[in-house]
Amino acid sequence: MLDLKPDFGSFFKDETFTGDFTFANSPQSVRRFPFPFDRDDYMYSVNIEPHVSTRPGSVFEHAFDIDEHYVSEMRDRARVLARDPLRCQSLPHMELAGWDLLELLMESLARDYPQWFTLTRSGNDWHWVNKPLGIDQRFTFLDASSLPYGPMEYITRQVQGDFTLQDERDQNLWVDAGMVTTQADWSLDFDIGMNFFEWHAPVPLAHEKGIFERALKFLLRLQHGAPVRRFNWTMTVNPLLDTAPETYPEWGAMRTTVTPQNVGEKLHLRVELQSLFRLPRSNAIAFSIRAYLGRFDDLVTVPKWGRRLHRVVRDVHPDLAAYKGFLRNRDAMTDWLSHHDDGAPTSPGIWPD
Amino acid sequence: MKDATMSLPPSILSRPVYGVLAPRPGLAHLVIADGAGAGAVADLFAADPGIAGRAHVLYTPGPDGGDDWAVIEALGAAQAQRAASVPTLLFRLARVLLDAKAGTQCYLAGSEGLIGQAERDLMAQGVPHQDIQKEHRGSTVRRVQCVHCKGITEAVRTDPFVCSHCGLSLYVRDHYSRRLAAFQGVCIDAEEPGNIPPAVEKFA
Amino acid sequence: MNAKLQVRVTEVEALNPLIKRFRFVPRDGGLLPAFSGGAHVVVEMEDHGTRRMNPYSLSSDPEDRTGYEVTVRRDDAGRGGSLYMHNHVAVGTEMVISHPVNLFPLDGRAKKHLFLAGGIGITPFKAMIHQLGHIGAKWELHYASRNPGLCAYGDLLRGPVQFYYDDDKSFIPLKDLLARQPLGTHVYCCGPKGMLAWVRATAAELGLAEHAVHFEEFTAPQPGAPFDVDLVRSGRRIHVPAHQSLLEAMEAAGVDAPYLCRGGACGQCECDVVTLDGQIDHRDHWLAPTDHKTKIMPCVSRFAGRALAIDR
């Protein structure tokens, strides 16, 4: 077992994403929140752009963003997996892609955060040190018996965000492996093995618009060394990272606890920064789905975001509101947000003015 | 492929699409059917009388009890067995697959549950699912996996229904997993416990 | 959009009178990305004023990150890409290649991989065999060539390998071979056109699953008569000379189209036809016959007639 000896230091926060919900963003963290709306309305589009380093300090600076919630999120992942190991699965032919992912993540973290992670290699003898989680591991690359878990599970227990691995066959992408504990209500155990269209089948309105056909064609030409990214978003009552279908009977009733008075404290905009990487050995595509939670109270401290969030929530298509799980609370949310929208025009782009 | 299953409602993209069994060249023909699927097998054999001599048919009665074994028996297949149930049919199938060759054509006919489970076992032996022919005949009852306890309830007729493993009331989502050979069942009263609408007979 | 690799040639070896092996190492002394068996790179050549971009399968060990190797057969009747490699590329030549792209991947679910190689078609299988060795999967190779002298890498291939030589009248016993494969076998074929058609027909006749039989489809573009094309969106008319493809002529005119294979297989450079008065010579493996009046693959296909306008 991966025995976590977390060291929160002065940067990482000791907080929970369940039970007493002590999660909170620091003021700096609110300022770097990846607000996903670049205009005052929302509809699906193939909003894919190159995943290149931009804006130092932002979530776009590094290939994989490690923030103040890192240690607590990894502890939450370990808690979820202890209860339900089916949240991490890999079909037998995906082990090589798991090694590709391990290499990508270890190389990226050691390069971008040398104060926390180091990777030393001599041929296939690798030495990995993860200081915040208290891990010091020597292992043999491509030899699964040298790690306490399979390569994908080993490394994704140490990186924020969900991951899926897509095998490419027959001009399609097949979601044949994944680590999924911070998801917006989809089941890896049910969806594993599906192709790109089947996996997205329940999404309303997008198939008719040809969104997935265009996205697939784009992704099939994704090349090694040229990753891409896009945003997705939904709403969550309480900062619950793990909104899994598996545990819906445990968290579903939280959606009925919203009152006009507590919207700002209860409602969280859940933003997924999705990034996609072609993997070298397996020709698979790694999909990183990194969830950020933003409390409404915090988001409206940026006036532009308060105005825009109000307009998006008010005007979004009801089928999307239902799919994203906030139709029940939409009126209360719109009402609360309207007090943070003076009707002034908003500037283009996602960043605070 | 032409859609012969007018009794199934149109649905979303993860839903299996069924066609009409058509003869294809093959060194061997593996045919798996239940209930009214026997009719589709008879049509297949009639379309190419050469199939029978190289065919192995595995058959079991349908989820509604319909048993057309006499139809299968009369086809003159090189090998044909009647299994008492789907699990015993799949047990025999596992043995057949142990030494099957790459030039084996696979045909499935009958209820969605039987087709799905046979397809799952064929896929596990490396047969691409796109190359397995499937024709739906007869019962439209569904095999549903409870997303919460992971238990599979066979022959679901109503929506919502009670999970036969954990007892939660589940609605049947039009989302299908080929790997599990099952539709997805999701708790219907998670947000307001006890608020369960009356069950409606949807699948027969 | 496509990141490129800056490399230098460090080895050129004549494997036989027709085939040369080239080794590329990164100019900065670093490591190249690992790759997947079956992948190719697009090699850029400045051939006396004409820019050529030819895809070549990687034939080296995918885990050898110190360099990539391609194996090139000289095509005296071709447009000159292979002649350029054979006659002008030497140790020390600096070149630019694409990141590896795989349009002929292994199917990891296979219970067994059966490789059928004809002549220079050995190249992707050499890399695949290296890769399967690292992960311990089951494979078997049947390799046909004209004679032992033209059997590239014949001396290096170890394991379950059978050789066949045309000059000895020994041929792959295809029917028996395919008929005895266990269910779950995936078959891969790379070789001349006639061999691909023979394998395709035999596999279908025996009832092998279509999705378990794979072909290396892309081929270097062949020359043809020159023609002119109107690029509607760019508002330009371009001339396509005999030894250039439409895609290359577009690129030379500064009109880019996305591509992966440049050989008619990947579908990325597909263009809509706006007006057509004449005959398109479709040479790709991508378009369905129903698309033949409305689309063209500029990487390989050509045109003869009065007017062709495309949406670029």
Topology of this protein?
The complex is a heterotrimer of chains A (353), B (204) and C (312).
Chain A: H1 27-31, E1 49-50, H2 70-83, E2 88-90, H3 95-112, E3 117-122, E4 125-130, E5 135-140, H4 151-156, E6 162-169, E7 172-179, H5 188-191, H6 196-199, H7 211-220, E8 228-237, H8 248-251, H9 263-266, E9 267-278, E10 285-295, H10 296-299, H11 303-315, H12 318-323, H13 330-338
Antiparallel strand pairs in A: 1-8, 2-7, 3-4, 4-5, 6-7, 6-10, 8-9, 9-10
Helix pairs in contact in A: 11-13
Chain B: E1 28-34, H1 37-47, E2 55-60, H2 69-73, E3 79-82, H3 86-98, E4 104-110, H4 112-124, E5 133-136, E6 142-146, E7 152-156, E8 158-159, E9 161-162, E10 169-177, E11 182-187, E12 200-201
Parallel strand pairs in B: 1-2, 1-4, 2-3, 4-5, 6-11
Antiparallel strand pairs in B: 6-7, 8-12, 9-10, 10-11
Helix pairs in contact in B: 3-4
Chain C: E1 4-14, E2 19-26, E3 39-47, E4 50-57, E5 68-73, H1 81-88, E6 94-98, E7 101-102, E8 112-118, H2 122-135, E9 139-145, E10 161-165, H3 174-179, E11 185-190, H4 193-206, E12 213-215, E13 227-231, E14 236-240, H5 246-252, E15 271-281, E16 295-296, E17 302-310
Parallel strand pairs in C: 8-9, 8-11, 9-10, 11-12, 13-17
Antiparallel strand pairs in C: 1-2, 1-6, 2-5, 3-4, 3-6, 3-7, 13-14, 15-16, 15-17
